[in-house]
Amino acid sequence: MAQGGYSQFCPVAMAAEVLCARWTPIVLRELHAGTTRFNDLRRGMPRMSPALLSQRLKDLEAAGLVARVPAAGEPGVSEYRLTESGEATRAIVDALGAWGQKYVDAEVSLQHLDATLLMWDMRRNLDPRPLPPRRSVIQFQYPEQPSAQRSFWLVVAPDAETDLCSTDPGFDVDLYATTDLRTMTAIWMGLDNVRAAVRGERLRLVGDPALADNMQAWLGLSPFAREQRLAS
Fold first, then answer.
1. What is the pLDDT of residues 197-219, one digit of tens each?
2. Region for residue 207 given its phi and psi (left: phi exceeds 0; alpha: psi -120 to 50; beta: otherwise)
């Protein structure tokens, strides 16, 4: 894994050779979040090249952490599944995230904004239970972003997986959420909240009042947002 390795018998060094190559912890984060398809993995790591992702998956497979298996009912399609040793890295990935949330300066974190990653993370952590028992379409608008990163749609339907669209899905929009990417990222990370952002005019909600009032409930938070922050 690590180029050249550490040439040490210490278990920390041996584990680091497997787990600490660039992007490997992030690939594991996505796999632990339940992502199994190559293109979906890319959506969670939009700045990682497809060639490097393919190499890291091969590395993890060679190390016995990941198994490439046929997708059920889809001939020619493969999925990447964590093995028993891969599943055992969950505590490591969770500890890294908790440490980062707790000790890394929030201003440093908010210098690395990524609309695609944010929306993908929000999509897979959205809680549909506070939403009405019908299809709900929420459009997020980031006016200051380049056109390709300016609008996203979350389509939530009963008994279906939440869909994230970067082009208009063609449904009537129930709620428009207009904000800047920094504010939405801060809300997601638990550094801000919906009510304060609306009150401070950093977030504008237009549409279904029930969806707007319950936004914090259905939006949820980053899995690490509840970690007590010690850095400023």
1. 999 999 999 999 999 999 999 99
2. left
